[in-house]
Design goal:
OB fold (Dihydrolipoamide Acetyltransferase, E2P); 16 strands; 5-stranded antiparallel sheet; 3 domains; 6-stranded antiparallel sheet; flat; about 190 residues; SH3 type barrels; mainly beta; about 0% helix
Length: about 190
């Protein structure tokens, strides 16, 4: 058993007869009244996100998990196939378990959190950023740079990312996986 002081991003807990992963938390100590912890929890079974507030010091049931590196192989519709980098075993996960499936390209290495009790995969953690090649974008209009102007660009994984006007087809860009936003152009 853990308490609310053990809450951190990525912690898996049992709550309302389901397993949730903490994606955001904030310890709040108001001037009047008791302290509490405001959390945003994501269900690892159906992907639903709920907001919850725990009173400070409350006991929570944490789940023992193991992390393993897996390589993304391919997807068939809603089913994504991964291979364990240590023993080459393969697993399949549904799209709703993944945080940013549209930003994964084949060969990407991800961290999969597995429940240590029943060996069930709980969630997939992407790297903080991925490098993707721009496959389609409209050319930027000259002189249209008075503000932070952006344009949509399609990357090799199929996702659409807003990029600055100077990005062209064939450029490699770094994309932040948590927000799906452009970070920088990668020079080769």
């Amino acid at each position: 058993m853990a308490t609310t002081s053990d809450i951190r991003n990525g912690l898996c807990i049992r709550y309302n007869n389901d397993i949730y992963k903490v994606i955001e938390f904030l310890h709040v100590k108001p001037g009047k009244g008791p302290a509490f912890v405001r959390t945003k929890l994501k269900s690892v079974t159906n992907g639903k996100v709920v907001d919850n507030t725990f009173p400070a010091g409350r006991k929570i049931e944490d789940i023992r998990v193991e992390t393993h590196k897996f390589q993304y192989l391919y997807n068939e519709g809603e089913t994504f196939h991964f291979m364990n980098e240590k023993d080459y075993s393969q697993i399949q996960l549904q799209k709703n378990v993944l945080d940013a499936p549209e930003l994964m390209k084949e060969g990407e290495v991800v961290t999969i959190i597995i429940n240590a009790e029943d060996e069930m995969p709980l969630s997939v953690d992407m790297p903080a950023s991925v490098v993707l090649e721009v496959t389609h974008t409209e050319p930027g209009v000259k002189g249209n740079t008075a503000t932070n102007a952006t344009k949509p660009a399609t990357v090799e994984s199929g996702a659409t990312v807003n990029v600055p006007l100077f990005i062209n087809e064939g450029d490699k860009i770094k994309v932040e996986t948590t927000k799906g936003t452009y970070q920088e152009r990668i020079k080769e």
